[in-house]
Fold this protein.
Amino acid sequence: MTAVKTALPAPVVELLDAALVAELTVVAPFGPVTYPMIPLSDGSRIWFTSAALFSRKLTHIKADPRVCVSLTDPAAVPVTPFRPATIQGDARVIEEDLHEGWERLLPLWRAKEPVIDEFLKKRFGIPLFFERAVIEVVPRRVFLWPGPGMAGEPEIIDLGGED
Amino acid sequence: MAALTIPDALDRVSRYERAVVAWVGTDGYPVSAAADFSVEAAAGTLTVGPVAAELGPPDGDDVIVTFSHVRPQPGVGYDQRRYVNLWGRAERAGDLLRVDVGRASGWDESETPFFEYAERSVGTARRYLDEVGSRPRLSLGWTVFLATRLPFLTATLVPVALGGAVAARHHLFRWGWFLLALLAAVAVHLGLNMANDLYDQASGADEANATPTPFSGGSRVLQYGLVSRRAMLTGCIGLYVMAVGIGAYLAAARGWGLLGIGAVGVFLSLAYTAPPFRLVHRGLGEPVTALGFGPVMAVGTFYACAGRWSWETVLASIPVAILIALVLYVNQIPDRAGDAAAGKRTLIVRWSPSAVQTGYAASVVAAFVAVVAEAAAGVTPLWTLLALLPAPMAVKVWRGMRSHYDRPYELMPAMQTNIALHLLTGLLLVAGYLLAL
C-alpha cells in the first residue's frame, strides 16, 4: 500500500523521538555503508551530528546524498507497541561551522543523552570530538512495518518530495 | 571502525539479536531492513531473512549486514556500544538472503575504549578538517593550559619551595630572590614541556601513542592541530629565553655558581628528548628527571636566596627527586607501545611489568628511608618526618600498577595518586622545615 504525505507520519516521529540509535546507511563508491548513530528530529527533518574524527560518512554523503535511516532495535528505540521503520531521503552535510554550528541541536541531543553535557564541559580533553558536522536528511519515503518484525509487507508512504 | 577477520566477525555476531541488511535500490537510494539471521561459520556465510522480495535486493547484489547494540541508561544515555559490519554478495532463496561475506569491520567499546577509538581516528579528522579548510580550536586559556601542560608545575613548585624552606631554616630566605628563582624554574619547566612535545612529534613517539591520558602521552596539541609547530617552537624558545635571562641576572646578582646550576638545568631539560643526547630514549629519563626536579631546582633556589651552595639542600631534595622520577616512571606505562614503536626505549619499555613494579616499590622505599635517615642524622629537622604520612598512598599506586598495567584508562587513578604522593610528601617536607623555624 502506498500513500502520499508531506510530513513524517506520527508513528515514525514517535520512533525518532525515542530512538537512542538508528542505522544511517549511505552509498559509498564500494556499496552501502551503515553507521549506528543518534537520530535527532523535529518531526519533519532528521539530523545526525558527526565528529570530524568519524568523518568518512560525510565524504560519502557529499558524493551521493541518497541515504536511508532505519529504526529497528526495540531496546534502542523504546516505543510500545514497536513498529520498525525505514526512511529514505536526501542528505546534506552542513560543515560551515564545525566548532559551534552543531550546538543548535544540543537540546535534542541532551534529551536523549544527558551525559553529553559532562563531556562538553571537558571539551578541552577531546577537542576533535566536538568539531562536528551536521547531516540533515530530508525524508522522501517511509517504510513502516505493521508489527515488531520486518517480515511482512511494509506500508510505503511517499512524502511528496518536499524541499 | 577497525577491520575484522571474517571468522572473528562471524563469531562476534552470535552476541546480537538481529541483523540490519542494507542494499542500494534500483532508484539509487539505499534500503535497509531488520531481520533474523543464522551463521554458517565454516562456509563464511550468513543467512538473513525473511526480507520481502518486493523490497529487494536483486539476486547477486552487494549488501551490508549490520549488527548493533547499546544498553540504554536512563538519565545518562547508553553504554555497551558495539557493532559489526559485514559486506558481501547476497543470493536470494525465497524470502531469505544468503550472504557470502567478503569483508568485515566493527567496534566494541569493551575492547577498544572510546577514547582510544577516537585517538586512532585523529588522522581521519585532520584530513577532513584540512579538506574543508577548518581548524579545531579552544579558548586561548585552554590552549595555553594544554600546550604548556600547566598542571605538571607541581613538579617545579615542590623543589623550589623546599630550597626556599632550607634557606629559611638558616635565616637566609629572601622573597625577591626566591620569586625570581621560581619564575625561572617555571619558565624552564614549561619550555621543556613544549620542547618535549616538539621532539616527541618529530620522533613519532606521540603519533604512535593511541592511548594518551591526561597524565601521559604529551599535550596532543600538535597532533590535534590546536597549535602549529611554529607557534609551539616560538613559545618554547620564548620560555627558555625568559628562563636564561632571569638565570643570568640571578647569577650576576647572587653568585656565578648559580650560572653552573642553571646551565645544568637547561642542558638536562633539552637533552631529555633532544638529539643527539635523547637521554629518555636511552632509559635515562628517570635519573635526569630526578636530578633536574630535585637537587638542581632546590639548590638553585637556595643559592638564589643565600648566595651560596648547600649540601643540606641536595640531601633534603633526594626524596622528592625520587618521587618525581617515579611520576615519570608510572606515567610512561600507558605510553610504552608508542614509545617502543618510535625507538624511545624508556625503562618501562626495557623492563618486564613485574620488574617495573618491583622497581617502583624499591624506589618508594628508598625515598621514605631517605626521609627518616636524614632526619635521624640531623641533616633535616625532625619535623620533616611528617613527610612519611603520605607513604601509604604508594601502596595504592603499586596495587593500581599490578591490576591495570595493560589498561591505560583504569591506570589513571594510580597515576593521579602517584602525582599526589610526590606533591604531599614534598609539601610536608617544606612544612617540616617551616615548623622547625
The mean pLDDT of chain B is 95. DSSP finds 16 helices and seven strands in chain B. The longest helix of chain B spans residues 175-203.
